[in-house]
Write a structure and sequence with these properties.
Elements lengths: L27 H21 L56 E3 L9 E5 H10 L6 H14 L1 E11 L4 E10 L2 H18 L3 E2 L9 E5 L7 E10 L2 E10 L4 H16 L6
Helix pairs in contact: 1-2, 1-4
């Protein structure tokens, strides 16, 4: 075809769908903290089974989980010399700090692969956090691994609870770190992130505990509601995630958080 023989009109270009606007990025110090420690926090939540960041919106999917019970003919567990297994394990120093299953509750569904009443060693949690960064480039991965090492994880204990009415499930996770500053920074990160993202509503106050904050999830049309609380005490960082049918009783969750924090202060006194 000659150079001067050009089509009168060019074929219409494919119309690309308009890109959705990107969510507003965290500002100021919150953004810097997010970029610095978010990978470690996300994996920490995945290890423990209750990552508040992954619950930015309430999932409308059915979260009902059937809890296994001892049926007829099934061997019953031997009596635990450390206490009533129905109220939770107490065979380690960290597990003793987790709130025993209170009245009107039972052990809840499994929290990921670790069951509904389990403990993870700091070494294993640290290794899994590092393993999740295998796809990151060499220098970035080394810097990330250094941040994870600075958390000085000592262990993670976690337990889930379901109300006898099956309308509320609560997951409690206690992370022990060697460095109290790391615990304080983690609390500051989580709470500032919740404040920055937007959509989260201020949750109930925890009576007698100023180092605790709760956040209600953004309002949606989902049938479930959720609430997350964070607190710290010395070398311990506490996460409590609760979800259930609407209307979720924030006061019931606040009572459990208070009982948990009181129990940390006096672990020998069962509530």
């Amino acid at each position: 075809m000659n150079d001067d023989m050009t089509p009168d009109t060019a074929p219409p270009a494919d119309t690309a769908p308009a890109a959705e606007p990107a969510p507003a990025a965290p500002k100021g110090r919150a953004r810097r903290v997010v970029l610095a420690v978010l990978p470690a926090v996300l994996v920490l939540g995945a290890v423990g089974g209750a990552a508040a960041y992954t619950k930015v919106t309430v999932d409308s999917a059915d979260r009902t989980v059937t809890t296994k019970v001892w049926g007829e003919g099934a061997p019953k567990p031997a009596k635990d010399p450390a206490g009533d297994v129905g109220r939770g394990r107490t065979d380690t120093e960290l597990s003793k700090l987790v709130l025993p299953v209170p009245k009107n509750y039972r052990l809840g569904p499994d929290m990921g692969e670790y069951g509904n009443d389990d403990e993870i060693s700091g070494k294993k949690a640290t290794a899994q956090m590092k393993e999740s960064g295998r796809g990151i480039a060499g220098k970035q991965r080394r810097e990330r691994d250094q941040r994870i090492d600075r958390l000085h994880l000592q262990g993670i204990a976690q337990r889930s609870y379901t109300s006898d009415d099956s309308d509320l499930t609560v997951e409690i996770q206690i992370v022990k770190m060697k460095d109290k500053r790391a615990v304080h920074d983690m609390f500051g990160f989580q709470t500032e992130l919740m404040d920055t993202i937007g959509g989260f509503r201020e949750g109930p106050k925890i009576e007698g505990h100023k180092k605790a904050r709760c956040f209600r999830e953004p309002q949606t049309k989902a049938k479930l509601d959720a609430l997350s609380c964070f607190a710290y005490d010395g070398e311990l960082f506490l996460t409590v995630d609760a979800y259930g049918t609407k209307p979720l009783s924030a006061s019931d969750v606040a009572d459990l958080v208070k009982d948990q924090l009181d129990h940390i202060e006096s672990p020998g006194e069962y509530v």
